[in-house]
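Title: Prediction job returns without error message
Component: structure pipeline
Severity: low
Priority: P3
Assignee: unassigned

Description:
Job completed but the reporter wants confirmation the result is attached to the right record. Sequence as submitted:
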Amino acid sequence: MSCNNFSPDYAKCNNVNFMKEGKIIVISGPTGSGESAITRRVLEMFPGMERIITVTSRPPRPYEKDGVDYVFVSPTQFH
């Protein structure tokens, strides 16, 4: 088991249990700043953690699925 700060085993190595401790982490940034990549990595490192599907008024990118990556709504619906 690799126990460096970037290891998928980080949670096990450091006895971290977010579900038990009730922590909320918000990852936010402008479009294209890498929030999705960071979120994927955090979910790999902390298997008990879950991601909430958020709502956006921007159009989906070709690889994104409604209800999986985001819930896509019109700007009118958003406001």
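Comment from assignee: result matches the submitted record. The chain has a mean pLDDT of 82.
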